[in-house]
């Protein structure tokens, strides 16, 4: 765990056991990362005006941005960012004040906006846009901008979701043992 980890207004990020945070990522404020998760190069997770919660065995890949929205008169809770267990967040993904269930795969360059709810066992295709407040039902593939339900997941795809997360647990273990700065 070598990332740029900073407190904000006296609130320090909480990092679980056996977590890999790349030295070129930035974690700020009210961010909790569950055990055996990984945060890869150039990820920014900014829990400044609300909280970010990342579950166990979840991987957030290179160049992704995680942020939240503050409370307001019309939305007293604001929008925290909640990410479940065994989630794969692909490269260059933007997650902003949304809720991601367990065993979800978010394709590269997808954008998920405030108040969106992604239920368990979902695949979101690369480049997809999930608009504010949209709910994606469990067991489906979603693609497009704005995102649309494409079809039910196959059994093989459902089985791949926890395997994708497990693959990143193995990779982060290797990084914890073998990555050194030069």
Characterise the protein shown here:
The protein is mainly beta and 182 residues long. The protein has a single domain (4-178), classed as UDP N-Acetylglucosamine Acyltransferase, domain 1, CATH 2.160.10. The protein is 13% helix and 37% strand. β19 (140-144) and β20 (147-152) form a beta hairpin. The longest helix has 24 residues, at 155-178. It is globular, with a radius of gyration of 16 Å. The mean pLDDT is 97.
How is the secondary structure organized here?
Layout: E1 4-6, E2 14-15, E3 20-21, E4 26-33, E5 38-39, E6 44-54, E7 59-60, E8 65-67, E9 81-83, E10 88-89, E11 94-96, E12 99-100, E13 104-106, E14 111-112, E15 117-118, E16 122-124, E17 129-130, E18 135-136, E19 140-144, E20 147-152, H1 155-178
Parallel strand pairs: 1-4, 2-4, 3-5, 4-6, 5-7, 6-8, 6-9, 7-10, 8-11, 9-12, 10-13, 11-14, 12-15, 13-16, 14-17, 15-18, 16-19
Antiparallel strand pairs: 19-20
Pfam family, one: Hexapep
Protein name: Gamma carbonic anhydrase family protein
Organism: Pseudidiomarina donghaiensis
